[in-house]
Design brief:
Layout lengths: L9 E6 L16 E6 L7 E7 L14 E3 L27 E6 L5 H10 L4 E6 L16 H11 L21 E7 L7 H22 L3 E7 L12 H6 E2 L4 E2 L13 H20 L5 H12 L9 H10 L4 H8 L9 H9 L14 E4 L2 E2 L6 H9 L30 E2 L4 E2 L1 E4 L2 E4 L3 E2 L2 E4 L7 E3 L13 E4 L2 E4 L15 E2 L7 E2 L4 H5 L7 E6 L2 E6 L3 E4 L4 E4 H50 L11 H6 L1
Parallel strand pairs: 1-3, 4-5, 5-6, 7-8
Antiparallel strand pairs: 1-6, 2-3, 7-11, 9-10, 11-12, 13-14, 15-16, 17-18, 18-19, 20-21, 22-23, 24-25, 26-27
Helix pairs in contact: 3-6, 3-10, 5-6, 5-8, 6-7
Pfam families: PA, VSR_TRX
Keywords: Calcium, Disulfide bond, EGF-like domain, Glycoprotein, Golgi apparatus, Membrane, Protein transport, Repeat, Signal, Transmembrane, Transmembrane helix, Transport
Main location: membrane
Length: about 625
């Protein structure tokens, strides 16, 4: 279909899976969503569309697909099967959107006919510029609605029971669930919502998996490029294995940023991480890899690449060679077994329909419909257990993961100082540089954490180099700043792993030992001064003195110390004598005065005078 830029098109978008009944109360509102055309370039842009008043809109999600304009029955009023037309997508192909013209029959009939022919969505378009309207059922105020309205108007009590108890099958004591996701983190709100969910739900998911209560399987949607477009630049930039496995461009812009094939490769790597982890009986490690990759390797920071991914894999203790062998060659002109299996799994089986929208959660082969949020998803999973077999995590919100006990949670650790960046929370383990004895550690918390600020040298020497030689301790730690290690004077090196003795002539560089009787000798990282003969070197004055002069000086110092001591002792004795004499004189005077002027408050006063005469 060709549309010029000046043509205004009114589009009505009808999602499939028709409901049997719908009753609308209150003010009527035309619900809108956006329809974005990615290619071709001449009609590229965003258009308004009205959501149908029937079907199941995928709120919070998006659905990419290929538009098909039928050669016959373009208004969709006839059964497409009569003409042998099918819109059902083949395994690995993008969903088909059928474009039909407005008019001649009800909206619901158009949608019904297209749905029966295998369409994933229907676009009803009109080339007349007019206000958007909402597609509705024929006779929307028909018998069912009429009877309800009559009953309410007559004052009768109308009871309605909404029952979701059987919404999720619950046959036994184990729940099987799967998440259809993507490693793309540049698709806006949808990607942010998905990443938040994975981080929040990780702790509960790992507890359920470790306890054997659930069997979780991650999946990734891919499409193949139609044969007619295999040489196009879109297919070349979005596909691997010669256009067999494709993903949309992350930024929806083929001229900048990452390409769709980058997303396919990382999706494949995450699938292989799960397979290798599953072989080691630790399938829950997939949650660690995905969350760590989101944090450490975002597209915005240009780290969405193999090098960053390999670093995450190694930190988790996974076998990198097995993962690379599982991924195979993305440039090979052959099927990739892992991605081929994913494309086959996209086709609906049993009670589950085709998976075409990201994200999609399936619990016990029943598609989950609701908000992708930890509490809501956990309730859906817990509803999948046979009654009385629910695990404790379904009955208690206080979830403890204890992930730091296994490989330190792939976080940084200083075993010598017994310090770790791993921290258990109810959302699973997180890697955060710690605070120890008031000292803050800084770093990425995965490969490094360095002490910073005052007091850092007390903790394992601040992670810096140190050594002891000839009774002297040398350290590269500086107890200030942001935690940098600097070799001390006379040394050179990185300050962390090594500091080597400098080849500089310290005696010459520091102009040491300049007195006439002095001699200088370079030592390990410093220098040493000495004097000839019996002379002693005085470093503070850079001079040499004889030992006898030093001995005489020491003797006089001892004499003076004795004299000062004797003087202090004499002064102390005089003060004691004076105090005792004064006390004795005071008592004698009081006794004499008491004989002539007795004091009322004094019953008896010692009389030393009488005692002497007696």
């Amino acid at each position: 279909m060709g549309v010029s830029k000046t043509t205004k098109v009114t589009i009505f978008l009808g999602f499939l899976c028709l409901n049997l009944f719908q009753l609308v109360l209150g003010r009527f509102v035309v619900e809108k969503n956006s329809l974005r055309v990615v290619s071709p370039d001449d009609i590229k842009g965003t258009y308004d569309s009205a959501i149908g008043n029937f079907g199941i809109p995928q709120y919070g999600g998006s659905l990419p697909g290929t538009v098909v304009y039928p050669k016959e029955n373009r208004k969709g009023c006839q059964n497409f099967d009569d003409s042998g037309t099918s819109f059902k997508s083949k395994s690995g192909a993008m969903p088909t959107f059928v474009l039909v013209d407005l008019g001649d029959c009800f909206f619901a009939l158009k949608i019904w006919n297209a749905q029966n022919a295998g369409a994933a969505a229907v676009l009803v378009a009109d080339n007349v510029d007019k206000i958007l309207i909402t597609m509705d059922w024929p006779e929307a105020d028909g018998s069912s609605a009429k009877y309800l309205k009559k009953a309410v108007s007559a004052g009768e009590m109308v009871n309605v029971n909404l029952d979701w108890r059987e919404a999720v099958p619950h046959p036994d004591d184990r729940v099987e669930y799967e998440l259809w996701t993507s490693s793309n983190d540049e698709c806006g709100f949808k990607c942010d919502m998905l990443m938040k969910y994975v981080k929040d739900f990780k702790g509960a998911a790992q507890i359920l998996e470790k306890g054997g209560y659930t069997q979780f399987t991650p999946h990734y949607i891919t499409w193949y490029c139609p044969q007619a477009f295999t040489v196009s630049k879109q297919c070349k930039s979005q596909c691997i294995n010669h256009r067999r496995y494709c993903a949309p461009d992350p930024e929806q812009d083929f001229s900048t940023g990452y390409e769709g094939k980058d997303v396919v490769v990382e999706n494949l790597r995450q699938l292989c991480v799960f397979k290798v982890a599953n072989e080691t009986k630790k399938p829950w490690v997939w949650w660690d890899y995905v969350t760590d990759f989101q944090i450490r390797c975002p597209m915005k920071e240009k780290k969405y690449n193999k090098e960053c991914a390999d670093g995450v894999i190694k930190s988790l203790g996974l076998d990198l060679r097995k993962i690379e062998k599982c991924m195979g060659d993305p440039n090979a002109d052959e099927d990739n077994p892992v991605l081929k299996e994913e494309q086959d799994a996209q086709v609906g089986k049993g009670t589950r329909g085709d998976v075409t929208i990201l994200p999609t959660l399936v619990v016990n082969n029943r598609q989950y419909r609701g908000k992708l949020e930890k509490g809501a998803v956990l309730k859906a999973i817990c509803a999948g257990f046979e009654e009385t077999t629910e695990p404790a995590v379904c009955l208690n919100d206080d979830v403890e993961t204890n992930e730091c006990l296994d490989n330190n949670g792939a976080c940084w650790q200083d075993k010598a100082a017994n310090i770790t960046a791993c921290k258990d929370t109810f959302r699973g383990r997180v890697c955060e540089c710690p605070v120890v004895d008031g000292v803050q550690f800084k770093g990425d918390a995965y490969s490094s954490c360095t002490a910073s600020g005052r007091g850092r040298c007390k903790l394992n020497n601040g992670g810096c180099w140190h050594d002891t030689r000839d009774g002297h301790t040398y350290s590269a730690c500086v107890d200030e700043g942001e935690g940098k290690c600097s070799c001390p004077p006379g040394f050179k090196g990185d300050g962390v792993k090594s500091c080597e003795v400098s080849t500089i002539d310290e005696c010459k560089e520091k102009k040491a030992c300049q007195c006439s009787d002095c001699s200088c000798k370079n030592t390990w990282g410093s220098y040493e001064c000495s004097c000839s003969g019996d002379l002693l070197y005085i470093r503070d004055h850079d001079t040499c003195i004889s030992k006898r002069a030093r001995e005489v000086k020491s003797a006089w110092a001892a004499v003076w110390a004795i004299l000062i001591g004797l003087g202090m002792a004499g002064g102390g004795a005089y003060l004691v004598y004076k105090y005792r004499l004064r006390s004795y004189m005071d008592s004698e005077i009081r006794a004499i005065m008491a004989q002539y002027m007795p004091l009322d408050s004094q019953n008896e006063v010692p009389n030393h005078v009488n005692e002497e005469h007696a």
